[in-house]
Amino acid sequence: MKKVFLIIAVASFLASCNSGTQGQLVGARGKKWHPEKPYGMTEVPGGSFIMGKSDDDIAGLNNAPTKTVTVRSFYMDETEITNAEYRQFVYWVRDSIVRQKLAEAAEIGGGGGGDAEGGNGGSIQDYAFKGSQQEGGRNNGTGETTETPYQQYSIHYDPNKQRLNWDPEILWATAEYPDQDYVAVMDEIYLPDTQSYNGQRLMDVTKFEYSYKTMDIEAAARAQGDRSQFIKEEKVQVYPDTTVWIKDFSYSYNEPMHNSYFSHAAYDDYPVVGVSWTQAKAFCDWRTLIHNGYRKSKGEDNVDRYRLPSEAEWEYAARGGLESATYPWGGPYAKNDRGCFLANFKPLRGDYAADNSLYTVEADSYEPNDYNLYNMSGNVAEWVDSSYDAASYEYYSSMNPNVNDKDNKRKVVRGGSWKDVAYFLQVSSRDYEYADSARSYIGFRTVQDYLGNEVNLNQPPR
Fold first, then answer.
1. N or C: which end of the chain has fewer CB within 10 A?
2. What residue stretch is flagged as signal peptide (predicted)?
C-alpha cells in the first residue's frame, strides 16, 4: 500500500512541475500590455535632436549652447492644464478633507440627528469611517463597484481599517446641515465672518492640503541597504494663489482676474496660473493616483506615473520634429504670411492687445505644432522638472538629460507667456523661477512615459 502511495505522489509531483511548461523555460509573464494614450495627451516619438540656441545668442546669456541629445518616447498633454482640470484636483482634496473631518467627529461620538435643534434628518454618523474592506470596492449588485481604491482611504488612519465614506453627498447649504456636530465641522472649513465680505461665506483654502510620499530614487539607487531615509512625505496646499494677478503688477488694475479667473466658468478652458512648482508636482501625483485607482478597480495593470517633463523633453516636444527651428512653427518670425500673430505674447512695445488678447487665451488657441501640441510658445510659461543651472548643458548626459538638484530651488520654466517678448517664446530660451513661487504667467502640462516597444522618429507614430 505504501508503494502504491509513493508512486502516486511522484506522478503528481512530475505532473505539477511540467504542467503547461513541459519542463521548458517559458518565463513568468504578466498580462498582455496594450499601450493606451491617456485622454487629452498626444504621443511624442523619441529620437535625437540638437538642443540649444541655433541662432545668435542675442541676449548674451551663454546658457544654451547646442548639444545633440536623445530622449525616449512619451505622452504629453496637448494643452496646458486648464482651470477646470486643476479645479477637479482642488475639489477632490477639499472633499477628502471635509469627509475626513466629518468621520473623525462621528468617531468621537457626535450625531444628534434630526432630533437636534435645526436638524434636517440624518446625522453626522452618516459620514463615519466605513471600516476595513477587501480591496477593489463594494459591489452594488449591478456588477459595478461603488468605490475604488483611490477614494476609499483616510490618510490619517490605517488604510486596512479606516476608509472614508464617499456614499452620502456633502451638504454645503447651511439650511441642510443635519445636526450641531455637522455645523461645528463645517465652521472649521470656512473663514470667520470677520474675514468675509459682501455677504459671501468664503472657504479657508489653506486647509486644502494634499499629502503624498516621494522617494529620491537616484540617491537610493546609489546607496546600499535601507532606503527609508530617501522617502519623504510632502504636504502641499493645492489652491492656486489668485493674488498673483495683483502682486505681479504694481499700479495696475487686475482685480477682475483676481476675483474670477480660477473660479468662474468663463475661464474653464484657460490655463491655470498661480500654481507653484511644488503644487504642479502634487497635481501629477494625484493624477497618477486617480488613474491607477480606477484601473486597479477594473483589475488592470497600472500605467506609469504622470510627471512634469524634463527640460530636454519639453524642448524636443516644442520643436515638433523641426530641426534647429526658432519657434514651434519654424520661424524665424512670430507672424504668418497674412500678418497674423502665431502665439499669445507681448509684441511690439508693450501692446498686449496687438495679438487680439490682453491676458491668457483658451488652452487650445492658435495652431498646434507637428506633434499636435498647443501653445508650446506663449500663453503661459511652463514649469519643467529640471533645476536651473546656467552651465548644465556642459555636463549633463546626452541620453535623456536632466538635472534636478533638490538643493537648488531655481526651477526651469519654458515657452514664454502672454506678458513676455518674443525672445522668450523661442523653443531654446531658458528662464527660471523659485519652486515655491507662483506667477500669473506660469502654468504647466504633464507627461507620461511610453511603456513597451519604443517609438522613434525613424518609424511612423502609432
1. N
2. 1-21
